[in-house]
Amino acid sequence: MNDQPKTKRIKERLHRYTALLRDIDNQRERLDRMEATIGSPSGPDLSGMPRPQGGVSNPVAAAVEKKMELEAKIRQKEAEEKAERRAIEAMTELMDDPDERLTIQLKYLDRAEWPDVTFALYGNRPDFADKADAYQRRMYRVHGRALLSLAEIEAEVNDSK
Known about the structure:
This protein has five helices and no strands. Helix 3 runs antiparallel to helix 4 and helix 3 crosses helix 5. The longest helix has 35 residues. The chain is elongated.
């Protein structure tokens, strides 16, 4: 039986969430760059070319306005992220299997890489170093089951609304 259609919706939701996290990171980086340029005074114009007269606004004021708009956009995205994180966390708390729960939490909420998820689940096993590939395959199976569980929980939550 193919579980792809069952998990498609939750996978898309989790990927949208991680994309939102990435977008917030990117916008913060953009803000940092903007703040660095606002704080740097421009050098003198040594070109000898005439400057346009009138209608030119204060470039610092314009930059500060852009910065404030970007800060507002970041705050709005952070509010979206916080609400979605709470919803995903609430669904993961309803998962029965602790390994499935940890897999979802590490991969999507904490943005851990697959080797780190595998190590978190099985790193304490004495044969982990020798059988790391086998444990990674096992972790992928746990991830698949976790997506199925989460998809079922999401469907139940949506049906109760």
